[in-house]
Design a protein that fits this description.
Radius of gyration: 19 Å
Number of helices: 13
Order of helices and strands: EEHEHHHHHEHHHHHHEHE
Mean pLDDT: 92
Shape: globular
Oligomer: single chain
Strand content: 5-15%
Structural class: alpha/beta
Amino acid sequence: MTLALLFCFYLPATGAPAAAAADAPPATPLRGALYKVSDGRHTLHLFGTIHVGAPDFYPLENRIAQAIAQAPTLALELDPQNAGALQAAVQRHGIYPDGRRFEQALDPVLTRRTLAALKRYQLPAERLQNFRPWMLATALTVQEYARSGYQPELAVDSYLATAVRAQGGKVIELESAERQMGIFSRLDPAQQARFLGDTLDELEDADLTQKLNDLVNAWRRADSAGFAQALKEMDDDKSFASTFTRHALLDERNPGLADGIAALLHRQDKAVAAIGILHLVGPGNVPALLKKKGLRVEQLY
């Protein structure tokens, strides 16, 4: 289920970040998921995000808005303004260094399907000719979200970072672009081709639009059950792409995210951490790992 990629893996925005509203109105709807974490001395808010956005996502609900207004530090998977590091990691792990074209790495059938998808999404093949297969898959996934009205430049991460910086706070990274993009470099050429093929299968699904909107609307409504169902579908889907997303992009990264959040909590009060919402649900989720560290974890919604 590669549609879930943008709920657990950061992708770069191509425009200006969303502007933060100064004050939320009295009755804003619940979004995502919000936790309060305490070590007995300090308190931290943990918010579940989505790495794309739409204008109607904002402003956010009062409790997360107030937490952001008081936060000296915001911890994100990656800092949206650290564009140089992200571009360097994409160049290192997502682009063929020898000028090879993706057509040379794919069999004829997968090449034709890829070229057809690029045309369908109005992505110029010549500009993407040196993309590795996994990078093509992510570009196509982002474009599917964009076609449905969800843009990387309106991502919740960018919105929160803009708000914290506007009040003089700082933004730190729980991971690095090199760490995230390097996960895909472990895939051999055959596995990358399978990842791309599975992505194309999903993008050609007749129920694609409904599935995408169900995922986004689960975030819009703070519907934890909806994300639990998304994880179940990912586990039930035995495709290579779903298995890789579940284990490499979620399970494998959760302990490091929990370690970084716990370290921030121990050294500073009133910080906020915001990570992709799929890191907050299912077995081995980040809140459960924080509880195992002896921290008090309360889900606010």
